[in-house]
Specification:
3 helices, 3 strands, alpha+beta, rod-shaped
């Protein structure tokens, strides 16, 4: 009876370790939590750019990876590039902006 219990505990421990390791991030892969955080951050940045009247938000693409926001797309004036970067940096949670 003790042997079966020890085997069951070992299997449970191994399954727990593998599930925790499977959800962790690596330098090239986000964890599930980081992915959700980045999706929320992308939404916040898009909303901030949309609320900026001088920018055409439909022409600016926003992608986020581990808190780093990347902006791409087209703007009418060179000053809009700087303005979009400033707006993105102003969002809480943004680590840096690649513009």
């Amino acid at each position: 009876m003790k042997i079966a219990r020890n085997i069951a505990m070992a299997v449970f421990a191994a399954a727990t370790v593998f599930s925790v390791v499977g959800c962790s991030s690596t330098p090239t892969k986000e964890s599930a939590g980081e992915y959700i955080d980045d999706a929320a951050l992308t939404t916040k940045v898009k909303a901030s750019i949309f609320n900026e009247p001088t920018l055409k938000s439909t022409e600016i693409n926003v992608e986020t990876y581990k808190g780093v926001v990347q902006l791409s797309g087209f703007v009418a004036q060179p000053a809009d590039i700087t303005k979009a970067g400033e707006v993105a940096r102003g969002v809480n949670g943004v680590k840096s902006v690649k513009n």
